[in-house]
Specification:
Helix content: 10-25%
Strand content: 25-35%
CATH architecture of the largest domain: Alpha-Beta Barrel
Number of strands: 24
Distance between the termini: 61 Å
Enzyme class: hydrolase
Largest sheet: 8 strands, parallel, barrel
CATH class of the largest domain: Alpha Beta
CATH topology of the largest domain: TIM Barrel
GO molecular function, one term: beta-galactosidase activity
CATH superfamily of the largest domain: Glycosidases
Shape: globular
EC number: 3.2.1.23
Catalytic activity: Hydrolysis of terminal non-reducing beta-D-galactose residues in beta-D-galactosides
Number of helices: 10
InterPro entries: Galactose-bd-like_sf, GH, GHD, Gly_Hdrlase_35_cat, Glyco_hydro_35_CS, Glycoside_Hdrlase_35
Radius of gyration: 27 Å
Length: 554
């Protein structure tokens, strides 16, 4: 036996005897991802490792598998994992490798969205703030300082995954990686430099030799061999930029994020199920829920600005890891119905015909294998249609799935899962304890003096650019000044403030005089605060706040 044959036999034995070794060769053609030579229909869901705790991960992933998922998708968060240049942190919630291994232990695949810009309603879009201070840097464009840092971090993550043999090409669960993120939404602002940057990003990513395909979402001009994918509430009309690439949906928004002061987002499961079925009806073979479990923006990770700490997203598994019904249960039934059609879906392209106004049939047929999808895209009227000699009732805005082209196993508008509403109890803190003491409930607090109380203050004329001043080490920046008022005590005037920050509190002589905030639609603000001065010395203290940082594109 030759040496190459021995290696192959050993690899086969490892595959047989290791429960988390996937032994996959991942490629793609125009219909689907091809894993170990077989086209696959894949249902995926996003769970971001730092938005839940390691103790929660096994349960979240098992509930995802029970719900019919094949793949878990996660971003990689640069500012979390490299808070200081060259100093990495992968402990606790930041342990990317442990998360990937936990997914593998459940027998699911992983889509690793490295970015490293991720948006994700995450502070500074996932960029570490120290990038801001590199001389000559411009983010997400053909800029050498930025490209050097982006390549260094991307290579770091790829090397980590390789060292643990976690890519599918090494027998691991990672079948896809993503470079950049929704750049096509803004690339026109960068002109020619944006075009050359995206080509560079594609070349850089593929040069890292992961052995699995790379994707770019919302990037219509993604260079070969990068697969361009769709993000949105509906992606059934999406077409890849090459007839050699499969139709993939990287973000099917299961709900939406919550801004402070905004309404709690809600997306009916009937609409979500309709969108999923329509995507597979019209040729899709990979679909991902963003989010399947949204989780929590812990610490100071909320972005935006004005993104709430809850990232529940109205996902099938709620912020606390509880199954949300009927969303989880109904989608599980949708996944079962689609999987019954898999043999037909991967065998051929659909033949799409009109059954009347706003009515459409898609048939996948080859030899004795046949599957059909019947859609009513009218938002108001139910109809009865004739298809292949049989009558079918189609509620408004629904898809019926027929795995044998005859019998309906599911209609997306008809829910059989029971509804469930979680209830929570509140607890009041009633003890009268000192500010530095811990109460019996575990809560504690400190009393902070008004104004500058630390030795690192410095004189400055006018208001400062807050990011440059705090380097995002704090959300707060104090301004303190004093004036000698020679008029009568009790005189009133107006304090006029123009702020580029997100919120502000004004104190006169140690007492709160007024506050003002921006909102998720308008961050900066102008405020006039009536104040009363005393004769002689008056102190004015302003507390400026940021509520999550947004990356500017220029």
């Amino acid at each position: 036996m030759r040496a190459t044959q021995i290696v192959l036999v050993l690899f086969w034995l490892l595959c047989i005897h290791s429960p988390t070794l996937f032994c996959a060769n991942v490629e793609y053609d125009h219909r689907a991802l091809v894993i170990d030579g077989k086209r696959r229909v894949l249902i995926s869901g996003s769970i971001h490792y730092p938005r839940s705790t390691p103790e929660m991960w096994p349960d979240l992933i098992q509930k995802s598998k029970d719900g019919g998922l094949d793949v878990i998708e996660t971003y990689v968060f640069w500012n979390l994992n490299e808070p200081v240049r060259g100093q990495y942190d992968f402990d606790g919630r930041k342990d990317l490798v442990k998360f990937v291994k936990t997914v593998a232990a459940a027998g699911l695949y992983v889509h690793l969205r490295i970015g490293p810009y991720v948006c994700a309603e995450w502070n500074y879009g996932g960029f570490p703030l120290w990038l801001h201070f590199i001389p000559g840097i411009k983010f997400r464009t053909d800029n050498e300082p930025f490209k050097a840092e982006m390549k260094r971090f991307t290579a770091k993550i790829v090397d980590m995954i390789k060292e643990e043999n976690l890519y599918a090409s090494q027998g691991g669960p990672v079948i896809l990686s993503q470079i950049e993120n929704e750049y096509g939404n803004i690339d026109s602002a960068y002109g020619a430099a944006g075009k050359s940057y995206i080509k560079w990003a594609a070349t850089m990513a593929t040069s890292l030799d992961t052995g699995v395909p790379w994707v770019m979402c919302q990037q219509a001009d993604a260079p070969d061999p990068i697969i361009n994918t769709c993000n949105g509430f509906y992606c059934d009309q999406f077409t890849p930029n090459s007839n050699t690439k499969p139709k993939m949906w990287t973000e099917n928004w299961s709900g939406w994020f919550l801004p402070f002061g905004g309404a709690v987002p809600y997306r009916p499961v009937e609409d979500l199920a309709f969108a999923v079925a329509r995507f597979f009806q019209r040729g899709g073979t990979f679909q991902n829920y963003y989010m399947y479990h949204g989780g929590t923006n812990f610490d100071r990770t909320s972005g935006g600005p004005f993104i709430a700490t809850s990232y529940d997203y109205d996902a099938p598994i709620d912020e606390y890891g509880i199954i949300r019904q009927p969303k989880w249960g109904h989608l599980k039934e949708v996944h079962k119905a689609i999987k019954l059609c898999e043999e037909a879906l991967i065998a051929t392209d659909p033949t799409i015909t009109s059954l009347g106004p706003n009515l459409e049939a898609a048939v996948y047929k080859t030899g004795s294998v046949c599957a059909a999808f019947l859609a009513n895209v009218d938002t108001k009227s139910d109809v009865t249609v004739n298809f292949s000699g049989n009558s079918y009732h189609l509620p408004a805005w629904s898809v019926s799935i027929l795995p044998d082209c005859k019998n309906v196993v599911l209609n997306t508008a008809k829910i059989n899962s029971a509804s469930a509403i979680s209830s929570f109890t509140t607890e009041s803190l009633k003890e009268d304890i000192g500010s530095s003491e811990a109460s019996s409930t575990g809560w504690s607090w400190i009393s902070e003096p008004v104004g500058i109380s630390k030795a690192d203050s410095f004189p400055q004329t006018g208001l400062l650019e807050q990011i440059n001043t705090t380097a995002d080490k704090s959300d707060y920046l104090w301004y303190s000044l004093s004036i000698d008022y020679k008029g009568d005590a009790g005189s009133q005037t107006v304090l006029h403030i123009e702020s580029l920050g997100h919120a502000l509190h004004a104190f006169i002589n140690g007492k709160l005089a007024g506050s003002q905030t921006g909102n998720s639609g308008k961050y900066k603000f102008t405020v006039d605060i009536p104040v009363t001065l005393v004769a002689g010395k008056n102190t004015i203290d302003l507390l400026s706040l940021t509520v999550g940082l947004q990356v500017q594109i220029f």
